[in-house]
């Protein structure tokens, strides 16, 4: 049994009207202080393939950017 708290991240925390149901890729910084997540596709398509940069210890988003808007050229990995 672990004594550490479990963190749950949601794209709606970072982007209020984001409808993407999942993160398709996550990557921690080398010092484990930051996390980069990438959303998949959502019904509206508004926030498809968006990178969200998080402050991991507070589970707080710092920034986000949409990296692809074309359904024929999705980005499948972040690091």
SSE succession = HEEEE
Mean pLDDT: 84
Task: Count the beta strands.
Answer: 4
In the predicted model, the low-confidence regions spanning at least 5 consecutive residues are none
Beta fraction: 25-35%
Widest beta sheet: strand line-up: 1-2-3-4
Through-space gap between termini: 30 Å
Summarize this structure as a short list of keywords or feature phrases.
globular, mainly beta, 32% strand, 4-stranded antiparallel beta sheet, 79 residues, 5% helix
How do the helices and strands line up, and which of them pair or pack?
Elements: H1 11-14, E1 23-28, E2 34-39, E3 50-55, E4 60-66
Antiparallel strand pairs: 1-2, 2-3, 3-4
Summarize the structure.
With 79 residues, the chain is mostly beta strands.
How would you sum up this structure, described in words?
The chain is mainly beta and about 80 residues long. It is about 5% helix and about 30% strand. It contains one helix and four strands. The protein has one helix spanning about 10-15, and strands spanning about 25-30, 35-40, 50-55, 60-65. Strands 1-2-3-4 form a four-stranded antiparallel sheet. The radius of gyration is 13 Å and the shape is globular. The N and C termini lie far apart (about 30 Å). The model has no long low-confidence stretch (mean pLDDT about 85).
